[in-house]
């Protein structure tokens, strides 16, 4: 089980940095991009539903199909470039290996069991437990799937190989929808965890 104890602070010394500035900027830009893309995407979905339901207009962005597409494209560029910046910075700074590895099924199971029993500690925010690592790695992979399936839905003719790998245009639409649903699910769980451990929000704003 991954439990970290809080490191005592020396008098007169600033608290250790939990999140560097570049990470905090990428986080909040990504939050904005996701909000724009999801709500405008729901409006686009309503124009040609995949399933037997629509999203209420009160939670959609754009007002109509054309407006929603414009918002979606605006959010798309922000999401894509910000996501690329986030991945590159994680790799170049060594944060990817330092924060998200090692990652093992047994470790995930043990930490998940501890979390469900209310025994998983969050004293040192600089370290991620196995459940957090798995969730963040998953959402990074999910973001890549969102971008690739979105390219097929947007420019199917221009990306024939990608379209075939996705199983065709219609299948790509389902892949894109399910990836979106997974992202929304992650956001909901993320917000619940922030509510349970409020100091994580402070660290993402102030860096400490």
TrEMBL record:
Keywords: Cell membrane, Electron transport, Heme, Iron, Membrane, Metal-binding, Transmembrane, Transmembrane helix, Transport. Pfam families: Ni_hydr_CYTB (PF01292). Residues 18-207 form the Cytochrome b561 bacterial/Ni-hydrogenase domain. One of its GO terms (cellular component) is plasma membrane. Coiled coil: none annotated. GO terms for biological process: respiratory electron transport chain. SUPFAM superfamilies: Transmembrane di-heme cytochromes. It is found in: Cell membrane. The keyword Cell membrane applies. One of its GO terms (molecular function) is iron ion binding. The chain crosses the membrane at residues 21-44, 64-89, 134-154, 174-198. InterPro entries: Cyt_b561_bac/Ni-Hgenase (IPR011577), Di-haem_cyt_TM (IPR016174), Hydrogenase_cytochrome (IPR051542), Ni-dep_Hydgase_cyt-B (IPR000516). It is a multi-pass membrane protein. Belongs to the HupC/HyaC/HydC family. This is Cytochrome B. It comes from Rahnella contaminans.
